[in-house]
Amino acid sequence: MASLKPRNSSGKIIVDKLTKELFLSNVRVSRESTGESHSFDFNKNRCKTLSKNEHIKEHSKGILYWMYRECRIQDNWAIIFAQRLARKQKIPLFVCFTIKDAQEQYPTKRHFKFLLEGLKLIQKECKELNIGFYLLNSSGKDLAKLIVQNEIGGVVCDFSPLRHPRKLQDSLLKELPDYIPVVQVDAHNIVPVWIASDKQEGMARLIRPKITKNLAEFMTGFPIITKHQYSGEMEVENEISKFEDSYDLYTPKWDVPEVKWGDGPGMEAGHSMLHHFIVKNLRHYGETSNDPSKDNTSKLSPWLNFGQISAQRCALEVKSMDSVYKEQCDKYLEELIVRKELTDNYCFYNEFYDNIKGAANWAQETLKIHKKDKRTWVYTREQLAQAKTHDEMWNAAQLQALNEGKIHNYMRMYWCKKILEWTESPEQAIEYGLWLNDTYCLDGTDPNGYVGVMWSICGVHDQGWREREIFGKIRFMVDYSLRRKYNMDAYCARFGRKLLGDAKKTPALTPKDPKKESANDRKKKAVKRKAT
Ligand SMILES: Cc1cc2nc3c(=O)[nH]c(=O)nc-3n(C[C@H](O)[C@H](O)[C@H](O)COP(=O)(O)OP(=O)(O)OC[C@H]3O[C@@H](n4cnc5c(N)ncnc54)[C@H](O)[C@@H]3O)c2cc1C
């Protein structure tokens, strides 16, 4: 693959000389050198035919890409496949996005605006590429009508393991005549979810070898989407001609203030953050990225989850740095590929991905045994949302979500585990955890979020630990250990106290360190059930 990255005489990339301009042109050149959608050797294992028929009817008037999860043009296997079909048939290419029931995926205006601003950029890009873009307020049934009326030869859709998009796809398939082929492309995972495994995998160590063995086949460069040669227009009902009108058609589930994330929505802003991460923070990844006060992870999850950048692009760019930062690259790729793709695997194969029935039997049992354990603190959902707990570190994490739109990964685990400790039951903890995560975090309503909450509260992808109150055998996290490891005062000063403005009035409660507890105290506290 062509590379413009500055190198020293032994071929090593000179990180400090990798400017943003060079980085971005390198991405473009790598696409150009990989080929065009029609000449590239497309791996059909990325695709799944959802319809009975696979063949495009002769004299069709276009190919339609129904965009849902992957809101981008370049680096998107679904539209690459759609353009390839359209070029082979010598017909126009159309993209449509429907905002009907958008609150299911984008529950607040914070989310919806990030989506819409990204789509606006896509519309512009489509215009330059001679691809018709339509923003619609249509149901599956309306879409089916549009496809038939416009004599569309084939439909390409992307993949999401979540309930709502799957329901939408089912309704389209139900309404569409059998002769129109519908092909789904997993453009989110590097190794398509159905190739990585045909069942729910219990842990990262079980899916890792299955993903790794397929990486050589799937982690290729992307061909470029070039200007489409065949023009056309569709006749559509329910089109939203002005983006601003979308807000009148959208009913947010919850009202939260908007936030600004990085340089804002869209691929360019996402790639700008990717460049920043590679040149500034990759060198620390794994070493200090768990430290909430340092905050030097990639911060790419909102763009990834809105489909505005591709995880495969991030993986390719980070991997290209492994001659400089081998260990850090490996650690990052473990998170981005193995951990992330494991969450799609979980949601795809487990219909109960957002409730206690989705937990393993051992976890359901242990939580049931401890359901009635006495809770020292019980908070309402509103108290939690407003960061009004006794724990300043927890409050700081919640305020980070509220004011920034995301929580640092390490704090997210602590934050969610405390929800189990401070609510009336594990069921309520899942409900509150998911609600808080999806309402305030820009990267929410994503498989990573469902699994993050289920891992914290129900031990999903984890093992049993020493048994204790409330948690049973679910892994526990303590405040003093967090303080011992990291500079939590700095974290609280940054996200909590400063924003709360009440630090002086409400001094932090100093958590008790068990090392200072007497053996007698500990004995009294210990749960009498035997841990395995
Ligand atoms: C309770 C809880 C809730 C969470 N909710 C979400 C959520 O709504 N959306 C979300 O994307 N992630 C969620 N996570 C996982 C993780 O916190 C975020 O992916 C991470 O903080 C994103 O920040 P980053 O992009 O800087 O991550 P980086 O550390 O730079 O990681 C790179 C990428 O790897 C992936 N990744 C990292 N950690 C995980 C993980 N534990 N599981 C799966 N993928 C991972 C993400 O795509 C991330 O962007 C949650 C975790 C927990 C414990």
From TrEMBL:
Lineage: Eukaryota, Metazoa, Ecdysozoa, Arthropoda, Hexapoda
Organism of derivation: Phaedon cochleariae
Biased composition (Basic residues): 522-532
Similarity annotation: Belongs to the DNA photolyase class-2 family.
EC number in record: 4.1.99.3
Basic and acidic residues bias: start-end ranges: 512-521
Single GO biological process annotation from the record: photoreactive repair
GO molecular function: deoxyribodipyrimidine photo-lyase activity; DNA binding
Domain of life: Eukaryota
Catalytic activity: cyclobutadipyrimidine (in DNA) = 2 pyrimidine residues (in DNA)
Cofactor(s) named in the record: FAD
Ranges of residues in domain Photolyase/cryptochrome alpha/beta: 64-223
Matches recorded under InterPro entries: Crypto/Photolyase_FAD-like_sf, Crypto/Photolyase_N_sf, DNA_photolyase_2, DNA_photolyase_N, Photolyase_Class-2, Rossmann-like_a/b/a_fold
Name the record gives this protein: Deoxyribodipyrimidine photo-lyase
Disordered: region residues: 504-532
Top-rank EC class of the record's enzyme: lyase
Record-linked NCBIfam families: phr2
UniProt keywords, alphabetically: DNA damage, DNA repair, DNA-binding, FAD, Flavoprotein, Lyase
